[in-house]
Amino acid sequence: MTKTIIQFVILAIVLILVQAVCIKIILFNVAVPFVFIYLILRLPMNWHTNIILTVAFLTGLMVDVFGNTPGMNALSCTVVAGVRHTVFNIFVPRENEMADPIPSIQTMGLGVYAKYMITLVFIYCTLIFFIQAFTLRDVLLTFERILASTLLTALILLGVDSLVSTKREKGL
User: Fold this and answer.
1) Which of 42, 26, 60, 58 lies closest to 131 in space, CA to CA?
2) Which of 42, 154, 45 has the alpha carbon at shortest distance from 59?
3) Average pLDDT, the chain
4) Which residue among 5, 115, 164, 166 is the one 20 to 30 A from 135 at the CA level?
5) Distance between CA atoms of 159 and 11, rounded to whole angstroms?
């Protein structure tokens, strides 16, 4: 358990620092990569909900500090952490429960993990862009930003997951 916590602390620090750089990247004025939410997706499913919500809130708050976005990421991350277990249960049937409680491509399979990840990334992007726009005046641009950012973030997170996987997971 202590080793897992240390790994997640290191992963959180690295992802928040990478996100501090990625905040400045906007592709075609619509797509923004949100790399740091990988930490929320990767938290073990057997951790208590209060711990997960606290980690998500603090992670979002740190990104808010770097990105000068007053509470938008903290709110979006907390909501994603709140619905994470429900989304997981939608895509992973009870009879196929994982031996390792950490969601990844190796433990869930590419198809199931991709559905789980894309759903949560879509929820995050929807929240962050509607909070950012705070209007329905330019709704088409907001939807473009949501879809483009979801696709870009999903592609990046699939690559990050293949890099972060532990040796034990790769041996399966």
Assistant:
1) 60
2) 42
3) 84
4) 115
5) 15
